């Protein structure tokens, strides 16, 4: 793996390898870009097939956070931590405190939070060693309801574009994955009068959605082909691909899952087919917007965080507008929105201030 070549090509600032013999910690902190502010991004714990896979994941996710934070209008750069290990069996207080000490040593260049495989308890252990951790139980808490609300608002913006109304009453929405985000999204949609079709690999999650929201159930591999207005991927990445696109009968793809397009070209194909794709990192920024509110000098405020999440409606509109004006697919328009903000703010910061 040519790490410096990758760092040069995609403009990474730091990649920090963290090891602690006592706790067994093997982790990577990747900081992609801090033009807008300290890098903020969650801490993922996963069993990787190789160290190279783990480093690649940290790099890819850190860069994704730069774009997500920039497009969301946050004064934050992008970073991510990857802890190599099984989240069910390899966790300990010592492991997360050891990681916390590494994060502390960066003196605020990187702020961590929850991600796949980590939870509020793990964040508390990190907090024993550093203040550079957000999303604690006593402050902003579980980000999923905020992410779900952001997805709902983004869907409304997309609906206004395609159906001429943001009213989702009577619209059919197919949700893939009714876990933390999917469940909360289903609740908003049900209350708005939408008809739901759901799938999940966990029976309990399906049962909850069917009973509470009168949702129709289909098997996991059937969800792509159902007749619907909106397909909402809220489970896995890479689900928009050569096998699934021909099955889609929706007019909009809008969901919380990260990295929905298997490859960028799949975003081009959606556009050719006349399906509006709402870029994942634009519509799923509710969680990070909420977590970032903790960094406000006056402290965390839930109502303010919710108001900011609601603005995802406007960001989605802006991306759609750019896509139309510049005749590019929405995923490329989203990248331009993020890159232009970083470039503009970098230029503003160019002048010298006496400290
Ligand atoms: N929780 C949050 O605030 C954020 C979540 N995301 C992304 O949104 C997605 C969902 O996140 P959460 O709801 O937190 O995760 P979760 O783990 O609570 O829910 C995911 C659900 O998908 C189901 N699932 C897994 N494989 C499936 C398959 N093949 N077919 C159907 N269902 C399947 C799982 O059983 C689970 O119920 C993930 O991709 C995550 O990275 C992105 C930004 C923030
Ligand atoms: O929402 C969080 O807890 C951190 C943000 C993040 O890592 C993400 O949005 O993927």
Automatic annotation (TrEMBL):
Q: Where is the Glutamate/phenylalanine/leucine/valine/L-tryptophan dehydrogenase C-terminal domain?
A: 141-350
Superkingdom is: Bacteria
Q: Which InterPro entries does UniProt cross-reference here? A: Aminoacid_DH-like_N_sf, Glu/Leu/Phe/Val/Trp_DH, Glu/Leu/Phe/Val/Trp_DH_C, Glu/Leu/Phe/Val/Trp_DH_dimer, Glu/Leu/Phe/Val_DH_AS, Glu/Phe/Leu/Val/Trp_DH_bac/arc, NAD(P)-bd_dom_sf
Which residues does NAD(+) bind? 177-182
Q: Which PANTHER family match?
A: LEUCINE DEHYDROGENASE (PTHR42722), VALINE DEHYDROGENASE (PTHR42722:SF1)
Q: Give the Gene Ontology MF terms in alphabetical order.
A: nucleotide binding; oxidoreductase activity, acting on the CH-NH2 group of donors, NAD or NADP as acceptor
**NAD among keywords:** yes
Q: Which family does it belong to?
A: Belongs to the Glu/Leu/Phe/Val dehydrogenases family.
Q: Where is the active site?
A: 80 (proton donor/acceptor)
Gene3D superfamilies, per the entry: Leucine Dehydrogenase, chain A, domain 1 (3.40.50.10860), NAD(P)-binding Rossmann-like Domain (3.40.50.720)
What CDD domains does the record point to? Answer: NAD_bind_Leu_Phe_Val_DH
Alphabetized, the UniProt keywords read: NAD, Nucleotide-binding, Oxidoreductase
Q: Name one GO biological process term.
A: amino acid metabolic process
Annotated organism of origin: Thermoanaerobacter wiegelii Rt8.B1
What name goes with this protein? Answer: Glu/Leu/Phe/Val dehydrogenase dimerization region
Q: According to its UniProt record, what is one Pfam family this protein matches?
A: ELFV_dehydrog_N
């Amino acid at each position: 793996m040519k790490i410096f070549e990758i760092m040069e090509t995609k403009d990474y600032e730091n990649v920090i390898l963290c090891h602690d013999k006592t706790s067994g910690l093997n982790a990577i902190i990747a900081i992609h870009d801090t033009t807008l502010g300290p890098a903020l991004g969650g801490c993922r714990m996963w069993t990787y097939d190789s160290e190279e896979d783990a480093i690649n994941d940290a790099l890819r996710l850190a860069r994704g956070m730069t774009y997500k934070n920039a497009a969301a209008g946050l004064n934050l750069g992008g970073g991510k931590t990857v802890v190599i290990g099984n989240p069910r069996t390899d966790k300990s207080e010592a492991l997360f405190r050891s990681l916390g000490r590494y994060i502390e040593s960066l003196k605020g260049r990187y702020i961590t939070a929850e991600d796949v495989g980590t939870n509020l308890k793990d964040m508390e252990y990190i907090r024993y060693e550093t203040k550079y951790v957000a999303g604690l139980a006593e402050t902003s808490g579980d980000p999923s309801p905020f992410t779900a609300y952001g997805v709902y608002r983004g869907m409304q913006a997309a609906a206004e574009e395609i159906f001429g109304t943001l009213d989702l009453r009577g619209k059919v929405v197919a949700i893939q994955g009714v876990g933390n985000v999917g469940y909360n999204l289903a609740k908003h949609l049900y209350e708005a009068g939408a008809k739901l079709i759901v799938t999940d690999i966990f029976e309990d999650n399906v049962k909850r959605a069917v009973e509470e929201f009168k949702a129709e159930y289909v098997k996991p591999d059937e969800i792509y082909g159902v007749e619907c207005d909106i397909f909402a991927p809220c489970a896995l990445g890479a689900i928009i691909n050569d096998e699934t696109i021909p099955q889609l009968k929706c007019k909009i793809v809008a969901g919380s899952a990260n990295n929905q397009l298997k490859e960028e070209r799949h975003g081009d194909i959606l556009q050719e087919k006349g399906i509006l794709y709402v870029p994942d990192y634009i519509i799923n920024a509710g969680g990070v917007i909420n977590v970032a509110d903790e960094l406000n000098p006056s402290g965390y405020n839930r109502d303010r965080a919710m108001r900011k999440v609601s603005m995802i409606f406007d960001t989605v509109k802006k991306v759609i507008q750019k896509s139309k004006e510049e005749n590019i697919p929405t995923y490329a328009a989203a990248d331009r929105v993020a890159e232009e903000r970083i470039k503009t703010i970098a230029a503003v910061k160019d002048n010298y201030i006496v400290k």
